[in-house]
Amino acid sequence: MGIVERTADLVAAHYVFPEQGDKIAAQLRAALAAGRYTEAGATGDVERLGALVTEDLQSVNDDKHLRLAFHADEVPEGQDAAARQMMERRSAESCGGVPRFELLEGGVAVLELAPIIFPLDLSADSLTAAMTLAAQARALVVDLRRNEGGDPYTVQYLCSYFFDQPTHINTQYWREGDSEEQSWTLPHVPGRKLGQQKPVYVLTSATTFSGAEELTYDLQQLGRAVVVGERTKGGAHPRNGWTVHPHLEATIPVGRSINPTSGTDWEATGVTPDIEVPAAQALERAHREALLRLAENR
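Above: the chain's sequence. Below: its structure in token form.
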């Protein structure tokens, strides 16, 4: 079976919205029959093929998680094997997704999470150490401006450091089994908690995406953090990936988020900051806001 046919079959079988999945798959098959992908296929330009197919995949509803992703390095076969290979490499390059921790004037800590929020088996030690340090600060700024996504179970783990009581943070609807899975803060996390009283600010940019948006949205909707920066990219659908070529991965959303406060999510719209400023100015503004709030609370 060819790359496009296999991608179309996977979309029809797994896309979170079945009717749209059938429509998108039909469009891919029609484009294939019309010769849209012939030149890229004939020349072996799989990067171009991936770009063309991604354009068609997103033409129905602009779902940014739905794509035929090109990987310069050869990726293994298997569901999510390509993503796992990428995450292992990028985690090793970023100290488990915690590239920066800094203490600013006035006891305001800055914790940057980037390039993504990795699964716990790759990130738990780094996140626990960082959150234990952050718990000793007077206020915390979480910098997600360079964060492109992440694992929802790690988002749950992180949120557990910000609340004192069990808190419902999100619900995931899964197409498989037509089921819902509630996400609550965990009853125990290692190290020290920041707790529910200290000021928290989250920095965002137009790059902030997916799992990083979930962390932002969860904390914002629960009134636990002030979001400072730019409107985020707008991708709320958790995805799985299937290797369809040694350099191509079909990434397909298999679920959607339902926030218990808003009853919706940030798909397509992004997360709107509470304080909207250019991303480059967000840290300075959040630091100033934190110092003012700390002064008011003395």
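DSSP finds nine helices and twelve strands in the chain.
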